[in-house]
Design a protein that fits this description.
With about 150 residues, the chain is mainly alpha-helical. It has a single domain, classed as Four Helix Bundle (Hemerythrin (Met), subunit A) (Up-down Bundle), CATH 1.20.120. It is built from 6 helices and no strands. Helix 1 packs antiparallel against helix 6 and helix 2 packs antiparallel against helix 3. The longest helix is centred in the first third of the chain and has 25 residues. It is globular and about 55 Å long. The two termini are about 25 Å apart.
Amino acid sequence: MIPRKGIIIKPVSMNEISDVAEARQVNETCCAALAADRATREQIERMKQLLQLSEQAAQDRDVEQLMLLDRDFHSEIAAATQNRILADVSRQLQEKSLRVWFISLNNIEQLRRVQSEHEAICEAIAGRDVEAARTAMEGHISSFLSNISKSI
């Protein structure tokens, strides 16, 4: 904030986006793998519920609601690791991604792709398939970065 001038918002740079995506790639693939091994039945059910809500939000093209549900889905995965440090890092990275989510969720095809990617991650976690969870999350983060790159 600058007195008598207002609030200045720092523009998002492609370098910053790449850095965040790279950090998310490391953190969230680890989280997905650990969640596949450690998630409780209740956490898996919560992930499935979030996916149902996000499917409806995507149909309604409610981007704001989708952003919140996306954050909650990734937070639930991080919580399922049973590792507070990983969950804290994941939360910080999600907050940094918030600035570009509107760009990332800019068309119906991308909304469908994100839903499908989330479903694959959830399915792998529910199936206790550590490698499939890791691979699905890796693909999801790569897709996020690719879509942002096309949109900026």
